[in-house]
């Protein structure tokens, strides 16, 4: 049984200069796991809101390297996380393809929704995405030069399915009617859009790696919207295409997949999506994960962001349960989704202390 196998493992030696986060992604064990949080930079931090107030919109922040670098570093200074995640957004890919994208205060992202084959044909050359997003890659270079030596730098992109949902729905969606209808009714043309996003994502992530990103996370936030067959075709296969093409040029850069709300499809995902580690949402049952997923791949997650917002005994209990189940194998502590903006910053202090003192 896998758990028996885990109990005989001992913390493997980290070579001098190894970073805790990268060691865990290589399958290494440590006394306490590395920790970082999705959306660790953001509106719950007063110092973020201060920088954000000086920007002419959210994309301006993403495309101004000095400011993007500063907000990436803020949670590292405050909490000493083991990894920093580049400050940008998954919707810079539609922007680089010349689709209209804006962030409306209090409403979230708004895109000029694609509605026809002609709209697809009007998108620009995806192989140029890395060049068009040179400002974001400059943020990566700056970070690479300014992070503490023990802190790893994560680059990221949205996975193709999740990016496609925004491009076709024109923003956030509850039921994904338009994008699913397109994928079901015209799989060939939907496949062309997915292929374009794969191409743009490979170009963009290669540029991030060349600028200094040491690991990559692919966010498939809406993976849970699809039936099993569609999941294989539009979630796992495009994740694999991105992973394989990146690995061909950058074989040592670990790739973390985050197929949020995949449920049972998590099992086919870990076999076929080509990722080196998997990030779990808070719905994933810990014991099952420990026995069936962690023996195959390092796992990351999966504290409920609402437990972090709540704090107190509810937070402590949830942390302990995760640590008891997952800290015996290759593991990175994280949330099941991003930090909620109303989260008191001191709850994050409590979380980091508890994980490190476990
Ligand atoms: O600290 C970090 O995690 C790095 C930066 C980061 C942001 N977005 C900054 C951001 C990352 C990794 C993302 C990923 C992202 N963006 C995802 C995947 C993860 C997830 O949350 O599921 C998605 C789906 C998006 C798209 C997006 N960006 C939405 C739907 C919104 C609006 C919702 C909201 O929270 O306001 C954004 C805006 C956004 N991206 C903000 C931040 C800090 C808030 C905007 C602001 O400061 O005005």
Bound small molecules, by name, code or SMILES, are: coproporphyrinogen III
Supply the helix-strand structural class. Answer: alpha/beta
CATH architecture: Alpha-Beta Barrel
Low-confidence stretches: 1-9
Cα distance spanning the termini: 25 Å
Estimate the strand proportion.
Answer: 5-15%
Fraction in helix: 40-55%
Principal-axis shape: globular
**CATH topology description:** TIM Barrel
Overall number of strands? 9
Order of strands across the main sheet: 1-4-5-6-7-8-9
- Specify the CATH class: Alpha Beta
As a whole number of angstroms, the C-alpha radius of gyration is 19 Å
Number of domains: 1
Taken in chain order, the helices and strands follow as HHHHHEHEEHHHEHHHEHEHEHEHHEH
Mean pLDDT: 96
The biggest beta sheet is recorded as: 7 strands, parallel
Explain this structure:
This protein has 18 helices and 9 strands. Helix content is 50%, strand content 12%. It is globular and about 55 Å long. It is of the alpha/beta class and 358 residues long. The longest helix has 25 residues, at 187-211. The chain has one domain (6-356): TIM Barrel, CATH 3.20.20.210. Residues 1-9 have low confidence and may be disordered. A hairpin with a 3-residue loop joins strand 2 (101-104) and strand 3 (108-111). The site of coproporphyrinogen III has 21 residues, from strand 3. Coproporphyrinogen III binds next to strand 3.
């Amino acid at each position: 049984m896998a758990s028996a196998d885990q109990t005989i493992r001992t913390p493997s030696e980290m070579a001098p200069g190894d970073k805790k986060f990268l060691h865990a992604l290589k399958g290494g064990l440590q006394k306490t796991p590395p920790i970082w949080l999705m959306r660790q930079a953001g509106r719950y931090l007063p110092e973020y809101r201060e920088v954000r107030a000086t920007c002419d919109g959210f994309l301006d922040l993403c495309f101004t390297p000095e400011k993007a670098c500063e907000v990436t570093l803020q949670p590292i200074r405050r909490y000493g996380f083991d990894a920093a995640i580049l400050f940008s957004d998954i919707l810079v890919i539609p922007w680089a393809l010349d689709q209209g994208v804006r962030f409306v205060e209090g409403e979230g992202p708004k895109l000029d929704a694609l509605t026809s084959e002609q709209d697809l044909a009007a998108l620009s050359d995806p192989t140029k995405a890395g060049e068009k997003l040179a400002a974001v890659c400059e943020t990566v270079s700056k970070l690479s030069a300014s992070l503490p030596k023990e802190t790893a730098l994560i680059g990221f992109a949205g996975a193709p399915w999740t990016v496609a949902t925004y491009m076709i729905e024109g923003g956030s969606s509850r039921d994904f009617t338009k994008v699913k209808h397109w994928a079901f009714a015209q799989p060939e043309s939907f496949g062309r859009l997915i292929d374009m996003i794969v191409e743009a994502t490979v170009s963009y992530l290669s540029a991030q790696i060349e600028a200094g990103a040491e690991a990559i996370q692919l966010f498939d936030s809406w993976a849970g919207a699809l039936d099993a067959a569609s999941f294989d075709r539009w979630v796992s296969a495009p994740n694999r295409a991105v992973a394989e093409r990146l690995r061909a040029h950058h074989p040592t850069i670990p790739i973390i997949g985050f197929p949020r709300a995949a449920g049972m499809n998590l099992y086919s995902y870990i076999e076929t999506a080509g990722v080196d580690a998997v990030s779990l949402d808070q719905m994933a049952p810990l014991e099952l994960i420990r026995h069936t997923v962690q023996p195959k791949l390092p796992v990351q997650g999966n504290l409920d962001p609402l437990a972090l917002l709540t704090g107190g005994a509810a937070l402590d209990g949830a942390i302990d349960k995760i640590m008891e189940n997952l800290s015996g194998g290759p593991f990175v502590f994280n949330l099941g989704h991003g930090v909620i903006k109303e989260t008191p910053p001191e709850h994050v202090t409590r979380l980091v202390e508890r994980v490190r003192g476990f």
